[in-house]
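Tutorial, part two.
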Amino acid sequence: MLAALVCAVACTTTGPVSEPKLNVDGLSLGAGNEVVVPAAGLDVTFSITSNLGYTVTSSQSWASVTPAAVSNEDGKDVKTAVTVAVAANETAEAREAVIKVVTEKNPALDYSFTVKQSAGKEPVSFYVTTTDLKEITAPIEVAEKATSASVIVVSNVSWTASSDQTWLTVSPASATIENEEVPTTVSFAVEANSVTEVRTANVTFTAEGAEPVVVSVSQAAKKDVSFTITVENVTYKSADITCVPSDETAYFLLSCEKAAYVDQFTTDADLIQADMEYFYEKYGESYTEHKYESYEQLFLEGLCSVGTEEWTPSPLDPETEYVVYAFAVDAELNPITSTVPKVRFTTEAKPVENWNYYGKGKYTEGYLSGLFGLDAKQVEVDIYQDPNNANRFAMFNAYGPEMLVNWMFKESVTIEQIEAAKGQLWDDTYYSYTIDFTTGEVVMPVQPIGFIHPSYGAIEAGIDPEYDPNGSYADGVVTLQVKGATLYLPNGAQTSSGTTYYFYGNTNGAFKIEMPTSAQSSAASKSVKPGRITGLKNYSVDLSKCIKTPNLVEVRK
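Running the prediction step on this input gives:
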């Protein structure tokens, strides 16, 4: 009985002994016994079933464990939910934490796994540079016209941009970027400046986690070139014009047109447009023929002036109202003059109208015949008498249509054709001698040469006193023994001294003027000496365009 009692007591107090155990469930582990967690963080939950007490630890503070310990006094199986709270990774590197489950009495049952977390966002990188990746240290300067500018935004986060002025727009105005440094070209579209002052726009770039970046754009003031125009020394066929622009670097077109042409336009813009269309029609497709690389280059360098311009347009029509005006253009030929100045003047009456017609004389020319190697010709000329001096006579139209036909165009042009072209190729009066029997002087007033075109440059013609070209008057004939005359040809072959001045002798005989019979008795025979011929500064001659060229073309200038 005692043995049985002992056995019964023993079985009651101790019972059967359970095997120690610890089971982990609910984890999705990778091949390396790890759990991968995103950078944003995550709660990793699992369960532990055990009949032992144990602790759960983490090797890193950013992965905290709840509960950290579980006790088990009676050895029964207890299932416990465990959470590992993984915080967001704010660093630029991936990281790991080891989670260990350690039993109190049976190390063989200990368990561990690794939490691997992705790298967090990199530090914010956000800056704005020039298109060649240089630091922007000053406002970006742009022209006054409609234009554009560009910058580069380099960022690893999303950004936006805004302009504080409506005349500057930004494109693109934003970009979405995640954790990768991306360069983006941003364009500023700038409208033309409509005011005559410099203006500024600020473009602000913003990104989360970064200081805003402000880029300033400074636009030049609208150019409005003005002019001061003066007209002096108005004669029946010319006037001295001075034009001073407000901008000495601006290209401008200076024109002198008949008032009837200018007055047909109601606005300055219409006048400018008409002029621009005229020149484009004339030269827009033929600029290469004039040795220019573009029409813009021809217009600016071939037609426009820069700086103060002094100009004597000639020949002008007598007793005619003219308007001098100017406007400036930019490099793209856009007008930059808001108000076109207009100065009016009226040419005087022709001097010949103050003289009395006297009769027909005969003129034998020796100057141009020697110049062009032609036979000397005798032509009839009109002789006028000064109403205030009976001994002073003037010879007009010495180089008129008859001489043109006889010398220059006899093979193709008639006198009628030349007469019909008056005002296109020459004025109504030409080189003319004034004979003063009182003083014995024969002078040549400044007048156009009939068949030499006035748009080819500069001519300076003169009877040089250095050669002492004495003459005589006898038997009604003025004879001028000219030994030399000077003609400047800008495009001529250079002499051995390197100049382009030529001296032409009177190779075909003297200058002779045979007066009408009625005038012969009014003066005694005497020696005569001409005065110097001066003032022909705005004429030149291109012989290839004159000799035997039948095309009489109007040139607008």
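The chain is about 15% helix and 40% strand. In part three we will examine how such features are distributed along the chain.
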